[in-house]
Structure formats: C-alpha cells, structure tokens
Design a protein that fits this description.
This is Bifunctional diguanylate cyclase/phosphodiesterase. Residues 24-277 form the EAL domain. It is a single chain. By secondary structure, the protein is α/β, with parallel strands linked by helices. The protein has 11 helices and 9 strands. An 8-stranded mixed barrel has the order 1-2-4-5-6-7-8-9, surrounded by 5 helices. β4 (114-117), α5 (128-138) and β5 (146-151) form a beta-alpha-beta unit. The structure holds ligand C2E and magnesium ion (3 copies). One magnesium ion binds at residues 59, 117, 149, 179.
C-alpha cells in the first residue's frame, strides 16, 4: 500500500494516446528500446496453498528497470504498451522469460507452475496457442507448467474469438485463471461458457473481509459458487494473518499477497523454493 503512494503515473490511462505529452513521447521511445535491450524484468509473486502453507505457484509480473527512474511498475508503463501496439512484443518477452525461469526451477528440482497475465486483445490472436506450445516444447516443459490470467474486460466485443483461443489453450493442457474477479464487468455467464480453471478474487473484496460483513459474504458466496463449478479459488492481496485465517475458514484454496511475499526476482524465488524441503511461507 505504501508503494502505491510513491508511484507517479507518468502516462495516465485517461490521456488515451491522443493528447500525448512530451514526457510520454520520451518514455515511449525509451520503452521501445527497453523491450529490445533487456530493461524489462519479470518478478514473481508466490501463490500459497492455504491449507498447507506451501508454495504452489508463482505469478509473473513485469517491471521496467529504467536506467534513470529506477524500477517502474506496470501501472506506470502498461498504458503506453497498450496504446502503441507493443502488447504482443511484451507478452512474448514475459512468456519467454517466465518459461525460462520455470525451466530453471524445474531443473533445480522444483517444478513450479507459473502464471502469466495476458492483455485482452491477445486473445484475438489465433496463433497464440501454437506459439505457446512451441515455447513450452522448446524447453521440454509440460503444458501444466503454464497458467494464463485473463481479466473480465477481455470479452467486451469478441467473446467468440476469445472463446476459441481459450478452448485451444485449454485443450493443450494450459490452465486458465480469471483475474481480478469481481472488480469489473463480471458476468457470471463467463464462468458458465468459458473453460476456466481458477478464479482470482480481487484484492478490493479481500482486503475488507475482516471488518466488512458484506465483503465477507460476497467472498464466501464466490468461493462456494466456484467450488460448485469445480474451480480453484485464489485470494489476491492478502496482507495479514487475520485475513489469511478468515479465508482458510471459508475454504479458499490459495492465497497470494504481501503477507506471504511481495513479488521477488527469479533468483529469490528459487531461494524461497530451496530454503525448505517443501517451502512453507507461513
Ligand atoms: P494483477 O495481475 O492483479 O497482479 C497483482 C498485483 O497486486 C501486482 O501488482 C502485485 O504486486 C499486487 N499485490 C500483490 N500482493 C499485494 C498485497 O498484499 N497488497 C497490495 N497492495 N498489492 C499486492 P503489479 O505487479 O503492480 O501489477 C499490476 C497489474 O499489472 C497486474 O495486476 C496485471 O494486471 C498487470 N500486469 C503485470 N505484469 C503484467 C504482464 O506481464 N502482462 C500483462 N498483460 N499485464 C501485467
Ligand atoms: Mg494477475
Ligand atoms: Mg489479479
Ligand atoms: Mg487485482
């Protein structure tokens, strides 16, 4: 939460590419270079089994190690990526990096699944399943090593195409999570019509559960609904023991959040994995 206060949106979502500022143009040039020059890094946030405390997966989160500004977070440059057609390049970069790191962990005796966030328009790309299959095969990784996270807004407009790509991914054995569930235009029909494996409950519902009975009721109901449909539930943004205990009491399967670990480098993640026979984070 502290980090958010120190962030400055260098290019706000509202400016929408039209009224391009001088700072925005400069940053865009730097970003194009950064994608090629290896200034983008991928950090990993552990996903923890709420029953056992074991590390059971990791979410890949992109960072920009800017030479002058220091580490930039996604909200500071993803709008530029979206507006200037860099989504495919960035997705491929993050996928490659995440699968390289997963292969390293695997080779070290830790076959940990990794989750990669997709931009909604990526799901209109019918070649995506093929590219992902090749990327996995190239590293001798099982399809279950990869999970993709999609947000609810991905469907606005092109449900059919998105469904085709998702079904393609699912048939290959890649698992699919619906991210930030509840925060956008959640349509329950998505849960019915799409091949989803995991529901990630948005932090805005999770944070208040210990003091807001309405938030708590919604979270319990979504967990029960997801379980009825055979889906795994993940709570995002867990920041304290009380929240973790409450979620465990509701039967939530998995938790992610700064209580367990902030996103860390690939090396630090391997260290977490190696530091205990079955790494337990709490
Ligand atoms: P997200 O997928 O919902 O990722 C979770 C975000 O919540 C991450 O922010 C993570 O650092 C933050 N978070 C985790 N635990 C806590 C906590 O306990 N408290 C608080 N306050 N925050 C917590 P981050 O890394 O800044 O990413 C923001 C968003 O940017 C992501 O939200 C995702 O939508 C997007 N994003 C990040 N990396 C990528 C990427 O490689 N590709 C795409 N397409 N989007 C990405
Ligand atoms: Mg995510
Ligand atoms: Mg999320
Ligand atoms: Mg979220």
């Amino acid at each position: 939460a502290k980090r958010t206060q120190t962030r400055h949106a260098v290019y706000s979502q509202e400016s929408d590419g039209q009224e391009t500022t001088r700072a925005g143009i400069q940053l865009l040039g730097q970003l194009r270079r950064a994608i090629g020059d290896g200034e983008l890094a991928v950090h990993y946030q552990p996903k923890v089994d709420l029953r056992t405390g074991s590390l059971i997966g990791a979410e890949a989160l992109v960072r920009w190690l800017h030479p002058d500004r220091g580490m930039l977070y996604p909200d500071q440059f993803l709008p530029l990526v979206r507006q200037h057609g860099l989504m495919h390049a960035m997705t491929d970069l993050v996928l490659d990096r995440a699968l390289d790191d997963a292969a390293t962990w695997h080779a070290g005796g830790h076959p940990l699944p990794v989750a990669v966030n997709l931009f909604p328009p990526t799901l209109g790309d019918v070649d995506l399943p093929t590219r992902i299959t090749q990327a996995l095969a190239h590293r001798d990784l099982a399809p279950t090593t990869l999970m993709v996270e999609i947000t609810e807004d991905f469907l606005l407009g092109n449900l059919d195409r998105a469904r085709t790509v998702l079904v393609g991914l699912r048939e290959l054995g890649i698992r699919i999570a619906i991210d930030d569930f509840g925060s956008g235009y959640s349509a329950l029909s998505y849960l019915r019509e799409l091949p989803i494996d995991e529901v990630k409950l948005d932090r805005s519902f999770i944070a208040p559960i210990t003091h807001d009975p309405r938030a708590a009721s919604i979270v319990r109901a979504v967990i029960d609904l997801a379980h009825t449909l055979g889906l795994t539930t993940v709570a995002e943004g867990v920041e304290d023991t009380e929240t973790a205990k409450t979620l465990a009491g509701y039967g939530c399967d998995v938790a992610q959040g700064n209580y367990y670990s902030a996103p860390v480098t690939d090396c630090d993640l391997l260290f977490l994995l190696a530091s205990a026979p079955r790494a337990k984070l709490r």
